[in-house]
Specification:
Blueprint: H1 4-11, H2 19-34, H3 37-48, H4 52-76, H5 80-88, H6 93-128
Helix pairs in contact: 1-2, 1-4, 2-4, 3-4, 4-6, 5-6
Length: about 140
């Protein structure tokens, strides 16, 4: 969530000024999500050897894509009126995001993060079976 959070702002079409950057990040999220956690676990088990580092890396890479995608979609579906109101006060871009966007999307971010945390707990049992550490080991 910590890595996906800032990347999602750059991936959202209505937030980032660069359409190219938005599309590149969206394809990056798609790639990270498209590779299953078990495949990442096999890859990192080969790279780092069996253990919790391989399992943590597999979960980390999968979740960058999943949370980045859901965060950016939540940002794209916001109502622009609060953002425009903060902009009309003369606030800079960071303050507009903090007071005009974040209060609207924060509940979605928290709920998706908690859901994925629960899902990753279940996923850790499966990736532990391939030697990538975790609960399954």
């Amino acid at each position: 969530g910590i890595v996906a959070f800032p990347l999602a702002f750059f991936a959202a079409r209505n937030i980032t000024p660069s359409g190219l950057l938005s599309q590149v990040l969206k394809r990056f999220f798609d790639f990270m999500r498209s590779v299953d956690m078990l495949i990442w676990a096999l890859f990192f088990t080969r790279a780092f050897g069996p253990g919790p580092l391989a399992g943590s890396a597999a979960i980390f890479f999968t979740e960058i894509g999943t949370l980045g995608k859901t965060y950016s979609e939540a940002l794209e579906n916001i109502d622009d009126k609060p953002r425009e109101g903060v902009q009309s006060t003369g606030a800079n871009g960071l303050l507009v995001q903090r007071y005009g966007v974040l209060p609207e999307v924060l509940p979605v971010f928290i709920s998706q993060t908690l859901y994925q945390w629960e899902s990753n707990t279940r996923g850790a049992t499966i990736i532990g079976a391939v030697g990538a550490g975790g609960i399954g080991l």
